[in-house]
Design a protein that fits this description.
Length: 780
């Protein structure tokens, strides 16, 4: 095999072949090609160019049947996956086999001009496909190899046989082959430009050749472009980034493929697929650039059209999505406009629309006796004690309770009825069909029964009731607002009758409702103007018969109504959400006044009791405001005792306990008011830092008539004594009550028997008299 290789090298691969192959390798931008020779018999043998030992091949490898060569023309063959059956080499860096990506097949002739096989230049580099320019240059080099081979064979034959005529004949054939090659370039469908190699920077390499396809495509004649640079093809929309990429490749003397927008002579833009390769001379010096330009305008326009169509489709899809989202948003808005977010029931607006529609549709309905008649009824519901639950357990429990109430109410209505939540704990059921009063009462009892079942929302079961106002539609009503107004009035009448009752609307209720509305308006004005007065009721020591403190009580004297009972306006203040403001005003006023009395009568050692609502106690700023008020008045916090109801303790939250601990750390004492009337639990006395128990007046009023009540009082007093708590009995009105309480060990007394609540001036006079008398006697 070695001798055969030497023969191939000596006979078919002169020095110029090596230079041409080197130029081909540079043009292809790959490793130096490997030369093989396929004989006419189809045998592939190595031509021993370069390090042939790195390549493996098998004897007798048949290649001609795979290539189907044209004897007279060189050609380039490439595949993306490699040429099937072509010998492979092991890449030392990866230890992986690398197969040929392309081959240049060059026909060989002998001295007589007969076909003598093929010369095959192959690339074993792992690379992509060849560009059009690389195809062109490799084909050109192949043609040069053919001519060089013919000249070499002819020269050897002439030297050997001294046949000048044959030399002339071979030269003619070589000239013909070059003419054919030139014809192929001239007749090529792609535009071909050849430029000088330099300069790469401005003004750029000059054009030395263009083929007819270039002139047809661009409209430029040969005389227009020769001596000028390819920059004449660029225009305002030519991509500057693409040009920068092109320039970088040329400066590195590297082949490049790029898509570019060029301009014809008449200014018409057109897209080209441009491939450029450098061409070197026999010494390896780059002398020219060869560029092949393929007009891709139709394909590019098709791509642009496809992209526009795709963008339009996406826009249509986005529009469809937007419309769908808009519809969903509209539906959500419509739902939100007519439904309650918390309970998912209908809201006030929806039920009013239905009532108005019912009033209009029944406007001319004539009864069997010829009188105008309207059907239907409205149930107005308000939960009894819901505010206490909300304030005691927090809004989360309150909301959960409302949802459960809504679920139960939904089970009480028919499909034709409308169930709505108006606001807070108010619900409305609109029965559109006329029903008898007995039927309406049955519905009301069903509602009460549904809500009277315990609610399992807390560690212990919670039981609620509701007050229901029922209004039967009549010809007197012209709008839903009038209907709800009077149904609300009936509900208030039911609430005044006692928890868990229902009442049918009577005209007199409307006047009562108007009175409540008027009172609410006046109360708001009074709160804004602080038009209240603080009264003080003394607290007495039962053993020493002396005043040890006073309880601050708010009073409201209306210019027209006179003295308004706290039992009447305090619940209204809670409903209006202004009770906190009233509490703060009372605290500020009382602290300032008792501070004055402490300085005026130091021997009395007065302390102050102030009632604080659950809502105010939960305010984050409560303690800060308390300290600010007492500091401003020069009042000692240890002389202050706040009174809370058992409802505050129902919250059972860490924040409540933390507030009590913070108050105690400041010296503030805590009294549990109305003890025994609420959800009394001994666990509260163990968990919270309570200082005083205040026995509700209802126990004191019954203690002498009911032995059981007396036993309860003794138990409370004994419990307080064992826990080292003070006990204050409220509502002491008789000597017998006072004596009994003192005998069982109740150490604090308060009531009308001892002293009724008095304004500031009268309390000042009372304290002055006590100090002057210097004796602990009661003023009855």
């Amino acid at each position: 095999m070695g001798s055969k290789n030497e023969e191939v090298k000596a006979n078919n691969v002169p020095l110029i072949f090596n230079r041409l192959l080197t130029a081909a390798a540079r043009a292809a931008d790959c490793e130096l090609g490997v030369l093989y020779r396929a004989t006419t018999e189809g045998l592939v043998v190595a031509a021993h160019l370069g390090d042939a030992d790195n390549y493996s091949f098998g004897c007798g490898f048949t290649f001609l049947d795979r290539i189907q060569a044209k004897e007279c023309q060189p050609f380039v063959l490439e595949t993306e996956a490699g040429i099937d059956g072509w010998p492979s080499r092991t890449d030392e860096s990866t230890s992986a086999g690398v197969v040929a990506r392309f081959v240049v097949v060059v026909p060989l002739v002998d001295a007589d001009g007969a076909f003598d096989g093929q010369l095959i230049l192959g690339s074993l580099a792992a690379r992509g496909r060849l560009s059009a320019a690389q195809h062109f240059v490799l084909g050109t080099i192949g043609a040069q190899i053919v001519v060089a081979n013919q000249q070499s064979a002819s020269q050897r034959a002439i030297v050997d046989a001294a046949q000048p005529q044959q030399l002339v004949s071979e030269n003619a054939r070589s000239t013909e082959r070059l003419r054919l090659l030139e014809s192929a370039v001239v007749n090529a469908r792609d535009s071909i430009l050849i430029t000088e190699a330099e300069p790469i920077t401005l003004p750029g390499p000059r054009i030395v050749y263009c083929n007819p396809a270039f002139t047809r495509t661009t409209g430029y004649t040969e005389s227009d472009v020769l001596g000028r640079t390819p920059r004449i093809l660029h225009g305002p929309a030519t991509d500057r980034k693409a040009l920068a990429t092109l320039k970088a490749a040329l400066q590195a003397w590297r082949p490049i493929e790029i898509e570019l927008l060029n301009y014809k002579k008449d200014g018409t833009p057109f897209w080209v697929e441009l491939s450029i390769v450098p061409v070197a001379d026999e010494t390896g010096w780059f002398t020219h650039w060869v560029s092949v330009q393929r007009d891709t305008s139709e394909r590019k326009e098709a791509q642009i059209a496809a992209l526009r169509a795709q963008a339009a489709e996406k826009e249509r899809e986005a529009l469809a999505v937007s419309l769908a989202e808009r519809q969903l948003a509209q539906q959500a808005l419509e739902y939100a406009a007519t439904h309650d977010e918390l309970t998912a029931l209908c809201n006030r607006a929806f039920v009013m629309q239905r009532i108005d529609a019912a009033l209009r549709s029944c406007d001319k309905l004539v009864g069997s006796e010829g009188r105008q008649d309207r059907g239907g009824a409205v149930f107005f519901l308000d939960l009894d004690g819901f505010k206490l639950v909300n304030d005691s357990f927090g809004h989360a429990v309150g909301d959960a309770l409302l949802v459960e109430v809504a679920t139960r109410l939904a089970q009480c209505v028919r499909p034709s009825d409308v169930l709505a939540r108006l606001a807070g704990d108010e619900f409305v059921i609109f029965v559109e069909r006329r029903e008898s009063r007995d039927a309406l009462e049955t519905i009301a009892r069903g509602i009460k029964a549904a809500l009277c079942r315990s609610f399992s929302l807390l560690p212990g079961d919670l039981v609620l009731s509701c007050s229901i106002g029922i209004l039967e539609l009549s010809e007197a009503y012209t709008s839903a607002s009038e209907v709800l107004r009077d149904a609300d009035a009936a509900m208030y009448a039911a609430k005044h009758s006692g928890s868990g009752s229902f009442e049918f609307f009577q005209p007199s209720m409307h006047e009562r409702a108007l009175e409540v509305l008027s009172l609410q308006a006046d109360l708001r004005k009074a709160a804004q103007a602080n038009a209240f007065e603080v009264y003080y009721q003394p607290i007495f020591d039962s053993a020493l018969h002396r005043i040890i403190g006073v309880e601050a009580l708010v009073r409201w004297t209306h210019e027209r109504r006179g003295q308004v009972s706290p039992a009447k306006f305090i619940p209204l203040a809670e409903q209006l959400g202004i009770v906190g403001a009233i509490d703060r005003w009372v605290l500020k006023t009382a602290v300032a006044q008792v501070g004055i009395w402490q300085r005026e009568f130091p021997e009395l050692s007065l302390h102050l009791n102030v009632n604080v609502s659950a809502l105010e106690l939960r305010e984050p700023s409560f303690l800060r405001n308390l300290v600010h008020v007492t500091d401003a008045a020069g009042f000692t916090l240890s002389d202050l005792q706040i009174e809370i109801t058992e409802g505050v303790l129902l919250d059972d939250s860490p924040s409540t306990e933390a507030m009590f601990v913070a108050l105690r750390s400041k010296g503030v004492r805590i009294a549990l008011d109305d003890f025994g009337t609420g959800y009394s639990s001994l666990a509260y006395l163990d968990r919270y830092p309570i200082d005083t128990l205040k026995i509700d007046r209802s126990f004191v009023m019954r203690m002498l008539q009911k032995p059981r009540t007396m036993s309860i009082l003794r138990s409370i007093v004994l419990l307080a004594k064992n826990l080292e708590l003070d006990v204050v009995a409220e509502g002491v009105e008789t000597q017998e009550q006072m004596a009994a309480l003192a005998s069982m060990g109740c150490n604090r007394l308060q009531g009308f028997l001892l002293c009724r609540p008095l304004p500031t001036v009268e309390i000042s006079a009372l304290l002055r008299a006590r100090v002057d008398a210097r004796r602990p006697t009661f003023s009855i």
